[in-house]
Amino acid sequence: MLRETSAGPAVSDELLYTTEDDIGWITFNRPAARNALTFAMYERLAEICAAQTATPSLRALILTGAGEKAFAAGTDIGQFRAFDGPQDAIAYEARLDRVLDTIERCPIPLIAALSGACTGGGAGIAACCDIRPRCASASRSRARWATACRWPTSRGSAR
Predict the structure, then answer these.
(1) What architecture is the 2-147 domain classified under in CATH?
(2) CA–CA separation, 138 vs 114, rounded Å?
(3) Rounded distance between C-alpha atoms, residue 143 and residue 68, angstroms
(4) C-alpha torsion angle, residues 68, 6, 12, 10 (rounded to 10)
(5) Whole-model pTM?
(6) What is the pLDDT of residues 90-128, one digit of tens each?
(7) What is the pLDDT of residues 4-18, one digit of tens each?
(8) Which residues are bridge partners to 110 per DSSP?
(9) What is the residue extent of each domain of the chain?
(10) C or N terminus of the chain, fewer CB within 10 Å?
């Protein structure tokens, strides 16, 4: 069963979230920008992970980057244009800490299927995941990941 979860108009095309049976797929979908994340993408990622804390319905979440060049290149530098002073930088760091903490606390296994560059905030996201394999192409091995995620795990049942 494949169903897409609405992400809202601002981020729906940039961060794709689908589920197939009991596996969630999150794709950073900005390949032209090496999947650099916008603030809205960070927030949506945190929302998805937090929703699993409230009512875990999935066996695992697999994070991937669109295209072949990058998993995620970190925060899109265009996001910083609105910064007026040091307080904006401090607020950004606090936001990123909150988002990464939410990801890290997700009660189901997170897999960062790394293909291409993984830098900055993208590396931070990957570091919060439970498994970080290097993949030739995460999209091409979707069936293999779905099978692997159905293996019994003590973590999945303990949480």
Answers:
(1) Alpha-Beta Complex (3.90)
(2) 7
(3) 18
(4) -160
(5) 0.82
(6) 999 999 999 999 999 999 999 999 999 999 999 999 999
(7) 444 443 457 999 999
(8) 61
(9) 2-147
(10) N
